[in-house]
Fold these 4 entries.
Entry 1:
Amino acid sequence: MKKIVLTGIKPTGRLTLGNYIGVLKNLKNFQDEFEPYIFVADLHALTLPIEPEELNTNTKDIVAFYLASGLDMNKSHIFLQSMVSAHAELNAIMMNYLYMGELSRMTQFKQKSHLMNESAIGLGLFSYPVLMACDIILYDADIVPVGEDQVQHVELTRDLVRRFNSRYKTDILKEPKAVVNTTGKRIMSLSDPTKKMSKSDPKGDIYLKDDEKTIRKKIMSAVTDSGCEVKFDKENKPGISNLLTIYSALKNITVEEAEQEFKGCNYGTFKKAVADAVVNELIPFQQKYNEIINSNLVDEALNLGAEKAKVIANKKLQQVQRIIGLYETKK
Ligand code: ATP
Ligand code: MG
C-alpha cells in the first residue's frame, strides 16, 4: 500500500513565491510514490478576520494553482476542509485530549495573537492545532510536508495520537511525521530579508499573479547590502542570500553552483538574472492557471477529491466514536 502524504494551504491571502518554492513546485513529485491528500484549509483561514469574497476567491485560486502545478486529480485527492464535515466532528472530540497549557505554548499562537487586540482573539486561533491534528489523523497520514513554522503542530499531533491510543489501549490513530522542506527553501521577504515571505503579511511579497513588469520591478528593488559580492551569507547578506535561494530553487541547482555562476558580477546583473528566472517560471504557470480558472476543472477536482476524502475520513471518525463509547443505534 502506498504511504499517505497530506498537506494544505490556508486561503488567508494571495499566494506568494514562498508558497510556490516551498510547496507547490514539488507537490507533483509525490503523486507516483505516495497517495496524496491535498486540501485547502479554509476553516483555518477563519482564525484571523477575513472578508467573505476574499476567502472565496483565495480558495478557488489555491485549487487552480494546485492543478496548474501539475497535480492530477485522479492521483491526488484535492478537496476543501469544509467539504468534509468529519474534520469539524473529530475536532469536537479531540479538543478534550489536548490541554490549554500545551496550546498556549504554541509559537504561532503567541505570534499571531500578539498582532491582535487581546479581547478580540478568537477561540479558533487558540485551538487551531486541534483542528490541524484532526486534518492529519483522519487520513492516517504518514508524512506531512510543512515549513518549519508548522513542525510544532505536527509534534503536538503525535502527542495527541500517543495519548489517545494509550488511553483507549488501541492503535487506531497513526503517528504522522513532519517533513521539513530542505534547508534554504525558506523564502524571505524582499523588503525585509530577515522575515519570512508570508501571504498574510504582504510587504515584500511576489504574488503568483503578479505581471512580468511588477515581478521585475520588485526583484530589481529588493533590499540587499552595500557590498558587491554575490555570496551566500545569511547573517551579513540576508538579501543576496535570499535571491540566491530563489534563483537556485527555480533553476534546480545548488546555492554553491549559483554563487559560482555570478562570481565577479555586480548586483544589478545578478538581480536581472533572478528576475528572468522568476518570470520564466511564473509566466507559463500563470497561463496554465488562467486556462484552469476559466474552465470547470476546479469544481470537477473538488467534487472528485471530496468524495474520496469523505469516505476515508468518515471511516476514521466512526472508529474513534466507537472506541470512546458514543452510542450507535442499530439500523
Ligand atoms: P500565513 O501568513 O497565513 O501563515 P503563509 O504564506 O505562511 O501564510 P501557509 O498557508 O501558512 O502560508 O503555508 C502554506 C505552505 O507554504 C506551508 O507548507 C508553508 O510551510 C509554506 N510556506 C509559507 N511561506 C513560505 C516561505 N516563505 N518559504 C517557503 N515555504 C513557505
Ligand atoms: Mg504560515
Entry 2:
Amino acid sequence: MSVELEERPANADDASQEQELTDGFHLLIDALKLNDLNTIYGVPGIPITDFGRLAQANGMRVLSFRHEQHAGNAAAIAGYLTGKPGLCLTVSAPGFLNGLTALANATTNCFPMILLSGSSEREIVDLQQGDYEEMDQLAIAKPLCKAAFRILHAEDIGIGVARAIRAAVSGRPGGVYLDLPAALFGQTVEASLGAQSLVKVVDPAPRQLPAPDSIARAIDVLKGAKKPLIIIGKGAAYAQADELIKRFVERSGIPFLPMSMAKGLLPDNHPQSASAARSLVLKESDVVVMLGARLNWLLSHGKGKAWGAPGSKKFVHIDIEPREMDSNVEIAAPVVGDITSCVEALDNAMGNDWKQPPSDWLSAVYDKRDTNVAKLTQKVGSDLTPMDFHTALGALRQIIEERPETMLVNEGANTLDFARSVINMSKPRKRIDVGTWGIMGIGMGAAVAAAVETGNPVLAVEGDSAFGFSGMEIETICRYNLPVCIVIFNNNGIYRGTDVNPTGGEDVAPTVFVKDTRYEMMMEAFHGVGVYVTSRDELSTAVNTALDSGKPTLINAIIDENAGTESGRIGNLNPQSVVKKT
Ligand code: ADP
Ligand code: TZD
Ligand code: MG
C-alpha cells in the first residue's frame, strides 16, 4: 500500500516566518571571537565536548590537554605573553578543580586568564540532590581568583564574557572564573537578538595615569639618591613597554636588577645590569625603584639582613595596584598607574639636566658584577662527566646566546636556581618559570603556550621531579607537533639522588626516584625524538639538533646525583629538625 502524501504548496511566506535561531554554544563562540580570543586550552567532556568541537569548526584553535592543570597553566602563560586573557575550558567538578590550581596560580602571578567551566544543573546542585559531577563551583572559585561570574541565560553570554575579559586584564591582571551551567549551551535565542547581545569590549585595559604630584615626589626622592637601584619585575615585562623602559633606565644611568621573568627586558649583558651583584645592590642601595615587582618573599619582603641597615632605604614603587604600596615596608614615593604611563611621566619629569648616579656607586656595583661574572664564566666552562649543573647549563647558556628568540621554560629547584643565574636572556618575555609561588608543574603547559602563542622554538629546562608534574603533556606536544625541546636534568630525585632511608628499611628516601630512569623513552612512545646524554658535547649537539629540526624532543641529561643542594637556593625557608632523634 502506498500513501499518497499531499504535496505542500511552496509558500514564500513560510520561510520568512520561520525564525533563524542561535544557541548558547554559538553565542559563546561568537562572543569570544568578537573579542579576538581565538585559542582555547582545555580538556573535553560533559557538558563542553560539543562546545569544543563547534569552536574548532568555527575557526578557533582548540588545544586538548591530558590534564586541566596544564591547560590552565598554558592559558595563564598565553595571557602573560599576549596581554589578552588566555582561555581554559574544563568540565564540571573534578575538571574544574584540576583547572583551579592554574587559575589561582595565574591570579597570584598577575596573569590574565579566564577559566570557562561547564557545570551541572543549578536546581540539582543547589538542592544537593546528587547530579553528575555536582559541585557549587562558583562559590569555590571565588576566593581563588580576581572575579567569578555565572551565566544563566544565553542572552547574557555577551555581557558575561565582556565582564570576564575586563576583570582579567584591567588594573592588576588576574584569573577570572566563568561558570557555564550545562543548560546554557542548548538555550536558543532569535539570531538577530543574539547578535545584538554580543559585546566587543572597548579598551579592555584602559591606561591609568599616575597623579602628577606622585611623579614629582618620585623624582625628588630619586634626585636625593646616592646609591640608586631599579628593580624590574614581570609586571613590567607583561606591560610590553619595552622601549620606554629601556629608554628610562638608560637615561637614568641607574643600575637595574631584573626579577627572574623580567630577565631580557633589558639584556642581561647590558652595561647597567646589576644581576651578578645582587647581594651588594640590595644591601647597599639607598633608593630603590620597584618597577612592576612586589616586595614579597622573592625580595625578602624589602627588609632584614639582605637589605642592610634598617631605615637605610627609600622605595619608589610603581604599580597599577594601589594596595600593593606599603605591603611590607614604608613606601616613600608611591606611583600608582600603568607602567607605560608611569614610566613615560617619569621620563618626562627627569628633564634634560638629569644627573647620572655618583660614579663611586656605579664602579662599586659594576666591579663586583664583573668579578662575579668572571667567576661564573669560569665555572660554566667546566666539562665534567658526570655533568654537574654548571657543566650542563654552560652548554645551554651558549645555545640561548646564539638563539635569542628561543622561549625558555624553567622549573625545578637547583635546575631552576642555577639556570636563572647562568642563562642570560637578551629579549623580553622569553623566560617563563615557577613564578611567585615557586610552583612545580608549570613546565609543559608553559611550553605549549610559548610555542603556540609565539611560534618560536621552546627550550624547557626541567628538574626530573619538576618534569614529573606535567610530563604526560609530552603527548600533547607531540600531537600538535610543537617545536619544543625538553631537557631533563636527571639527578635521580628532588634536590639530589643520594638520600637514604635512615632505618635501612625497604622504602627509599622520600626525595629519591628510580635510578637511571630513561625519560627519553617516554617521548619515543609518542613518536617524538628521545635522546640520552651524559656529556656537555652530547647535550649541546642534541639541543641544537632539536631546535634546528623543530621536532618535539626530550633529552634525558644525566646529572651527578650528588650535585644539588637542599631546596636549591631557598634552603633557609625549609624548616629542619634540630632535635637529635629521628
Ligand atoms: P616579580 O615576581 O617579577 O617580582 P610580581 O609578580 O611580584 O613580579 O609583581 C608584578 C607587579 O606588577 C604586580 O604588583 C602587578 O600589580 C604589577 N603590574 C602588572 N601589570 C602592570 C601594569 N600594566 N602596570 C603597572 N603594574 C603592573
Ligand atoms: N609541589 C608543588 C606544586 N610545588 C612545589 N614547589 C613543591 C611541590 C616542592 N618542590 C620544590 O619547591 S622544588 C621540587 C619540589 C617537589 C622539585 C625539585 O627537584 P627537581 O630539581 O628534580 O625538579 P633539582 O634540580 O633536583 O633540584
Ligand atoms: Mg632533580
Entry 3:
Amino acid sequence: MSSSLLDRIRHSTASKLTASYGFLYIASSLFLFVIAYMLLANVVRAQDQKLLTEKLNEYGYIERTKGVGALIEFIRRDNEEDTEPDYFVRILDPARRELLTIAPPGWSAVPKEELDTQAAEGVKWYLWEQPGLGGGVYEFSSRKLASGAFLIVGGDVKQREELLAEFQRIFLGITITVVVIGVGVGAVLANRTLAPIRDLISTVNSIGRGSMAARVPTRGTDDELDELASLFNSMLERISLLIQGMRDALDNVAHDLRTPLTRAKAVVETALQSNLSKQGLREALMDIAEENERIRTTLNTLMDISEAETGTMHLSLERVDVAGLIEESAEIYEYLAQEKGIILVPDSSPGLYAVADAGRVRQVLANLLDNALKYSKPGGQVFVTGWNEDGQVRVLVRDEGEGIPGEDIPRIFERLYRGDKSRSHRGLGLGLSLVKAVLKAHGGDIQVTSEVGKGSEFVFSLPGVGQPAG
Ligand code: ADP
C-alpha cells in the first residue's frame, strides 16, 4: 500500500469514526466480559472458601473451648482411619514451630515455609499452584487461634481453577470475535454513512473544475444527509440561474445597446463632418438624447427582468386595490386610445384586493395596455377587466387587434423577441418578458390566447389578500 493511500486512510473521517467506535466497542465489551468473569469467579471461589471457613470456625471453636491440645487430638482422631485425607491441616505454635501437619499424599510439594509466613502475617487466602504441567492447585486459609497458635487449612481447587481458565479462554474468544465483527460492521457502516459526504465533495470538486451542471446524487433515504444533498442541489440550481441570468442580461445588453450606440455614433460623426446650422446641431443632439434614453430604458428593463427572474427584485408588498389601479391605468392610456380611435373599456368589480407591489402592478398593466393599443386597428376596442377567482385576483386585457400567429405565442415572453409583423411598431421586445418575470416574482402568472386578425387576450393573476405572495 503506498504511503499516500495510507495517509488518506488515516485522515479519512470514515477511518477516524471506525477507530473511535471500534475503541469504544472494544473497551466496553472488554469491560463487560471482565466484570462477568470476575462475578463468575467470585461465585465459584466463594463456594470453596465457604468450606474452608467452616472448618476454620469449627477448629477455632474447639481450640477456644478446650485448648490447642484437644484440637490436635480431635484432628488426629478424625483422620485416624483416613489414610488419604482430602484436605490439609497444619497447626503452628506461637513461635511458628510445627505442632501438627496433615496433608494428602500429593501435597508434599506445598511450600510449608511460605505458608507458615503467610499465616503469621495474617494473609487470609493463599493460592498455590504446583509448577509444571498437570501440577495441583491448592488454596489455603489461616487463622490465629485464641492461644496464639496458627491454624492453616487448605483444599484442592484444581478443578475450579481449570473451569475458570476455560471460562477465560471462552470469554477471550468471544471478545475477539465480537470485536472483529464490531470493527468490520462499523467500518462498513461508517463507509456507507459517509458516502453522501463523498458525493458532495466530488460534486464540489467538479464545480471547482468548472462543471456547473454537476449535482449531488440523492438517495431518497429522507435522512439529514439526503436533505443536505437536496438543499445543496437547490442552492446550485439557484446559483446557476443567477449566473445564467447574468450571462443572458450581458448578452442582451451587448446586443441591444449596439444599435442605439451605432446610431448615436453615426449622428455624432455626421454632425462633426458636415457644417451644420444651429438648428441642425440641435436636431443631432436631440437624436443622441433619444438614443441615450433608449439605452437607459433598455438597461433598466433588462436589469428589472433579471432581478425579477432571479428573485432579487425588491417588492414592497401591500394590500393593493387592483380595481383602482385598472381605473388609473385606463385613464392614463385614454388619451393614446382616443388618438388612435380605439375605445378603452375598463371594468372591474369593487373590492378587488391583491398582495402586491403597486408600482410593479402599474408597470404590468401599462405594458399590456400599451401592446393592446399598439397592435389594435382604429375603431377597435380594448377591454380591461378584473375579478376575484379561487382566492386570486385576475385581470384580463383583451384587444381586437392583429392577433399573434400560433408559432409566435410560445416565444413572445422571451427577452427581445418581437413578432415579424411587429417590426413596424416601436418597441424593444422586452415588455412581455418584464410582465411575466414581475408576475412570477409575486407568485402570479400570465396566459395568452390569440387569433390572427381577431385579437389577443392576456389574463394575469396575482395572489389575493389572504393568499401567500411571492
Ligand atoms: P414589443 O416591444 O415588441 O411590443 P413585447 O415583449 O411587449 O415587445 O411583445 C413581444 C411580441 O409579442 C411583440 O413583438 C408582438 O409580436 C407580440 N404581442 C404582444 N402583445 C400583443 C398584442 N396585444 N397583439 C399582438 N401581438 C402582440
Entry 4:
Amino acid sequence: MKFFIDTANLNDIREAQDLGVLDGVTTNPSLMAKEGITGKEGVFRHYKAICDIVDGDVSAEVIATTFDEMVREGEELAEIDDKIVVKVPMIREGIKAINYFSEKGIKTNCTLVFSAGQALLAAKAGATYVSPFVGRLDDVSVDGVALIEQIVTIYRNYGYATQVLAASIRHPMHIIQCAELGADVMTGPLSAITALFNHPLTDIGLAKFLADHKKAGTK
Ligand code: G3P
C-alpha cells in the first residue's frame, strides 16, 4: 500500500519523508489556503517546493470547473514537475478533462468521489487515481470503508488500471481497514500515519529490555 500525506504543510511533508515511508502527497484548495498559500505564482512555487521534498506523486487540484479551463490549468500544473498529478473534481466536465489528460499522458486524480458509480466513470475515463472520501462519508453516517471495498471489487472485476486512493483518512483504523481491502494508496494527515507506531506493549517491552541491559551491566 502506498502512503500519501494529505497536507500542504512542508514541515509535515518533510517529517513523513524523513520517516522513509512516504510515497507521495495530496493537496486540495482548502489545505493550500490553510497554509496561507495564495496567488497563482505562490501556489505554483509551493507545489514545486513539495515536489522537491518527496520522491513520489504530488496531486495538485484545478480550480476551474469547465473543460477548457481545466485543460488549460491542468496542463500548466503538469509543467511544474514530472511528479505532478492533476487533481480533477468528479463532475461531467471533469470526466471529459480526465479523458483528455489520459490521452495526453498526463497523470490524474479524480477527487470528491462518494459512490461506486462515480468511481466507475473515473476508471473508464482513464484516471490514474480515484479518490473516494472515506472520512467524509463516515461523517454523514455512511460507511466510507465499505465504499472502498465496493470500488476495489469493481476495478478487479474488469482489470481497470486506475488506482484506488483511499482519501479523507482520519485515523489508523481507516488505514488498516483500507489495506485489508486492497486499496492501492491511502492519503491522510501525519497524525494518522504516526499513530500506526503506537502500541503500549512496544513501550513496556523496550523499557524492560533497556532496564535488564542496564542491570546486567552493573553486575
Ligand atoms: O484531499 C482530499 C481529502 O483527503 C480530504 O480529507 O479530512 O478534509 O475530509 P478531509
